[in-house]
Design goal:
Layout lengths: L1 H32 L4 H6 L5 H10 L6 H13 L13 H36 L4 H15 L2 H15 L24 H7 L3 H38 L2 H8 L4 H38 L5 H10 L3 H29 L1 H6 L1
GO molecular function: dipeptide transmembrane transporter activity
Organism: Celeribacter indicus
Family: Belongs to the binding-protein-dependent transport system permease family.
């Protein structure tokens, strides 16, 4: 049994590294075929031909493509993602500063989506084909259909401009910027660590709207999947027998259905979390959130390929790692997979 489990784990690790290699290869190709000039972006369009040639040689762009790819992979393994024309800093440093903001936004969004989506999915399953079920399904359909950027702009107009119940764009008000020392890079945690309750409250008013808008689409997916999982369990013999014995629906949910779909929900949560990290690009632009999404958009507008490709790789790696961890958790927690091994 242990040998089979070890082989399965090794196979998944191999698949993870293979997927990573494919991702790196795709980003390398995209960086070479895009109609932008990385050398011109760094030295300027009016640079001296000798300076242009020197920078081209420094970047290794005068070498064969396979040699360029080998250097590309080797530098990446060493944490060298190039220099960002956008800031003049190493891309790794820029991403290190921007990623915590995206992580904070996506983490709050997945928490909100799970807290709302799972109960809604269970309620829809228990009240199947009733007005409750139909209403929840309509809410989910809207979440799948409405573009996040449009929803974000409407949210800003209603809750910030008209009702003034949330903070505006950015992470905190201007007069709070730079006060809290950056420890984790996440303003909510850092403000609590510094004992700045007022800044924490202000940051919370700023993050709650973009997190809610970002969570809506994930909540729609989680609701639909939870409903599907719960309906499958409700048709099982053990649930029918429990109902025949007069067991309350609440007890059936807490003692039988939830434990049986918990493992599946872990996978759904991991997929949703990765999608939120990816989908934060548009949300961050709308709300001027200084994360990877806004950084990538700003870099793309000036043709900074190093920054765009590096940000894409980071998001892709996080997505693959989350799927890998959810797969491992599924294997460890679901006894049926152990029996199959």
């Amino acid at each position: 049994m242990k040998t089979v489990a070890s082989m399965r784990l090794g196979r998944r690790i191999f698949q993870l590294f293979l997927s990573l290699l494919v991702l790196i290869a795709i980003t390398f190709v995209i960086g070479r075929i895009l109609p932008t000039d990385p050398v011109g972006t760094l030295v300027g369009e009016l640079a001296d031909p000798a300076a242009y040639a020197a920078m081209r040689a420094r970047l290794g762009l005068d070498q064969p493509v396979l040699v360029q790819f080998g250097h590309y992979v080797w530098n990446m393994l060493q944490g060298d993602l190039g220099v960002a024309a956008l800031t003049g800093n190493p891309v790794t440093e820029d991403l290190w500063r921007a990623f915590p903001a995206t992580l904070e936004l996506a983490t709050l969004a997945i928490v909100l989506s799970m807290l709302v989506g799972v109960p809604l999915g269970l309620a829809a399953a228990l009240r199947r084909d009733t007005w409750v079920d139909q209403t929840i399904r309509v809410i989910s359909l809207v979440g799948h259909s409405v573009p996040v950027f449009w929803l974000g702009m409407i949210g800003l107009l209603v809750f910030y401009a008209l009702l003034q119940v949330v903070g505006g764009p950015g992470r905190v008000d201007v007069y709070y910027e730079g006060i809290v020392p950056s420890v984790t890079g996440m303003i909510l945690i850092d403000s609590l660590l510094a004992g700045e309750v007022a800044i924490f409250q202000n940051a919370l008013t700023h993050i709650i709207l973009p997190a809610s808008m970002l969570a809506y689409a994930a909540m729609a997916y989680i609701t639909r999947m939870t409903r599907s999982f719960a309906l499958e369990q409700l048709s099982q013999d053990y649930v029918i027998a429990a109902r025949a014995k007069g067991v309350s629906p609440a007890r059936i949910l807490s003692r039988h259905i939830l434990p049986n779909i918990a493992v599946q929900l872990i996978t759904v949560a991991a997929i949703s979390y990765g999608s939120l990290l990816e989908g934060a690009v548009v949300t961050e632009v709308v709300f001027s959130w200084p994360g990877i999404g806004q950084y990538m958009t700003s870099a793309l507008l000036i043709g900074d390929i190093n920054a765009v490709v590096a940000a894409t790789i980071i998001i892709g790696v996080v997505f693959m790692v989350l799927n890998f961890l959810s797969d491992i958790a599924y294997t460890l927690l679901d006894p049926r997979t152990k029996e199959a091994g």
